[in-house]
Design goal:
The protein is an all-alpha fold. It has one domain: Orthogonal Bundle (MetI-like fold), CATH 1.10.3720.10. It is built from eleven helices and no strands. The protein is globular and about 65 Å long.
């Protein structure tokens, strides 16, 4: 049995999770603690991938990332290689698709932090950036961890967006969800069943961890 699709799914999930946590944490901080014009429009834009059908999102990403798209042309100018139908392409698509799942748990965790802690940090002369790293993040580690796990699990199960942007190139973009679909199409139920058998307990364990983190945040235990 070819385990490369499972390896690619795990690799994609790890890379996407790391990038999303780095991007989402300051954005969540901005959305929770600062007021600015267009804030509601920015939040709606960030959450749009949650309500769009994956094929619709995948189509627009394909247009933007393609050889004639702005992002595709920029990427090709920098790297001399196309963005679509590559591992880098499916990483970018995963980041866009999973953004709401990264930012929402962080926002919830940040909103629960006692505002007096922030006021004290400002009185002590800490800048907003220093407050973020020394006050916000340490007091919201459960939310950050829940966000990371949710993104990881969500990325492991991605199908429509990945198929639209990456296709099914063995060793490059053929992740586990696509491999399962193709195995079922080929009536190879044994291979599809084995991959599902591996993915189900992984997802279940991660969901248990999220539930535990959520309960700890709610009840402080």
């Amino acid at each position: 049995m070819d385990l490369m699709p499972l390896y690619l799914s795990i690799k994609l999930a790890i890379v996407s999770t790391i990038i999303l946590i780095v991007l989402s944490a300051p954005l969540a901080y901005l959305l929770v603690y600062f007021r600015f014009r267009g804030k509601s429009f920015l939040e709606a834009l960030l959450n749009l991938p949650m309500v769009l059908p994956p094929t619709v999102l995948g189509f627009y990403l394909l247009v933007v990332m393609g050889p004639k798209g702005a992002l595709g042309r920029l990427w090709e100018a920098i790297t001399a290689s196309p963005l679509v139908f590559t591992f880098a392409g499916i990483v970018f698509a995963s980041i866009v698709y999973s953004f709401p799942f990264a930012i929402q748990p962080m926002k919830t965790a940040f909103e629960k932090i006692d505002r007096r802690l922030l006021e004290s940090s400002y009185v002590l002369g800490l800048s907003p950036l220093a407050t973020f790293f020394k006050v916000i993040v340490p007091n919201a580690l459960g939310g950050v961890a829940a966000s990371a796990i949710l993104v990881f699990v969500h990325t492991m199960g991605e199908f429509g967006v990945i198929l639209m942007v990456g296709g099914s190139i063995p060793g490059e973009t053929r992740v586990a969800s696509i491999a399962i679909y193709e195995a079922v199409e080929a009536l190879n139920y044994r291979e599809a069943g084995i991959m599902c058998l591996i993915l189900v307990p992984i997802s279940y364990v991660f969901l248990l961890i999220i539930n535990r983190l959520t309960r700890s945040n709610l009840y402080g235990s």
